[in-house]
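Please fill in the sequence for the structure shown.

STRUCTURE ENCODING:
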């Protein structure tokens, strides 16, 4: 709610020329200030939002979103499910409490309001208007979703096959492979030198691995002499597992790098699928420069792939996939329509066989290069019953929602005023 109140504050302090009607949906006006407020709430800075041209794609997208919301509000009024005063006031009270909690004192809150030329009563009125409409649209969607799910088919796969366009729009199932490049710390000279000296002391018998871990390691395992216990592939970061699973009991490796710092490792035991190891870590924080360096590595690798390097060969030589089940980097069928942000943008329009630009993943602890498979046929048998049910609900609701909105647009007049 804090973002909403900041938008309101910005709009109240803006020139009155902002207050013009850009569309009317039934009896519901859409103000230019509504669009600007939505743009600010979505992350566009205030100055850009105030000066944005109405013909810009961002503005048009924002206005279309508001028109859709107004259609739902108008529909809620017609079905007599617009929230009552008590429900709206409860939502306003919650919003006021939340925004007040972002200030250390009540006086700071009042000073903020004063700086925008707004009063507590004015803020409550703004919230009442905004939240009443939002609750109304949510109520309408909830009602229709409940009705829609009652009629949902039981056979997910048959529905997917019969509605390929909706499946593509909502899920965008894509057979993907990837190359996973961990972001490694760059300023590690001192840490590597220290651990090289520690390894020499261990190997000459001047200390034991567990004693050295207790003395030097900078994580919680120092309390147990560096012992990490038993772990399987996929339990640790891929760069660490790549070293650990290549050792025999008693062997020591390192210093080597992972996204968390510099390590020494000693394998203490192993069975068919698991290993037990101890480590010593000197933690080195990642920096933006480290991420930039990994992006540069990825761009060089993409250039080699575009020049003819085999993708599987690149996976084997460079990728540190955190999931050992991804043979040769194959992720299987991925519903990229459910992805968000830069990852979604990187893959959503890939053609079969096409390679993406690099994109940060895992909270910027790695950089990935994706490749769309030459074969894009979806084998729905690869998904569990729970996954199929969840996907069916998403696709069926979107299909229902699109038809519902078309019906509302046909029934409720929309006038664009520019």
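FILLED IN BY: designer on duty
SEQUENCE:
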């Amino acid at each position: 709610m804090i973002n909403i109140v900041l938008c309101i504050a910005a709009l109240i302090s803006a020139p009155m020329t902002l207050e013009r009607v850009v569309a009317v949906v039934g009896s519901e006006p859409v103000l230019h200030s509504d669009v600007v407020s939505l743009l600010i709430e979505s992350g566009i800075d205030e100055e850009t939002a105030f000066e944005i041209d109405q013909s810009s794609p961002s503005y048009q997208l924002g206005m279309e979103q508001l028109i859709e919301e107004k259609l739902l509000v108008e529909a809620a009024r017609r079905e007599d499910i617009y929230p009552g005063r008590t429900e709206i006031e409860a939502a306003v009270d919650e919003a006021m409490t939340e925004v007040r909690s972002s200030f250390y004192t009540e006086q700071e809150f009042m000073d903020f309001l004063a700086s925008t030329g707004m009063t507590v009563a004015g803020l409550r009125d703004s919230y009442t208007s905004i939240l009443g409409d939002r609750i109304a649209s949510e109520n309408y969607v909830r009602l229709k979703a409940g009705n829609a799910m009652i009629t949902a088919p039981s056979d997910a796969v048959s529905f997917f096959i019969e509605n390929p366009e909706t499946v593509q729009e909502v899920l965008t199932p894509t057979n993907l492979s990837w190359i996973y490049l961990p972001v490694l710390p760059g300023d590690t000279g001192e840490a590597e030198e220290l651990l090289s000296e520690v390894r020499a002391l261990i190997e000459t018998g001047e200390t034991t691995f567990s004693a050295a871990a207790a003395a030097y390691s900078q994580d919680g395992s120092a309390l147990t002499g560096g012992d990490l216990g038993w772990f399987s592939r996929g339990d640790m970061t891929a760069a660490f597992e790549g070293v650990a699973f290549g050792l025999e009991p008693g062997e020591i490796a390192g210093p080597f790098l992972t996204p968390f710092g510099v390590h020494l490792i000693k394998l203490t035991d192993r069975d068919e699928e698991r290993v037990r190891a101890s480590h010593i870590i000197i933690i080195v924080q990642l920096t933006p420069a480290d991420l930039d360096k990994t992006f540069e590595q990825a761009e060089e690798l993409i250039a080699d792939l575009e020049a003819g390097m085999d993708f599987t060969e690149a996976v084997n030589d460079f990728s540190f996939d955190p999931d050992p089940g991804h043979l040769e980097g194959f992720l299987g069928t991925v519903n990229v329509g459910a992805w968000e942000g830069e990852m979604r943008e990187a893959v959503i329009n890939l053609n079969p066989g096409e390679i993406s630009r690099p994109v940060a993943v895992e909270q910027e602890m790695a950089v990935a290069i994706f490749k769309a498979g030459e074969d894009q046929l979806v084998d729905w048998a690869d998904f569990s019953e729970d996954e199929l049910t969840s996907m069916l609900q998403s696709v069926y609701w979107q299909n229902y929602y699109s038809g519902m909105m078309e019906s509302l647009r046909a029934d409720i007049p929309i006038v664009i005023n520019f």
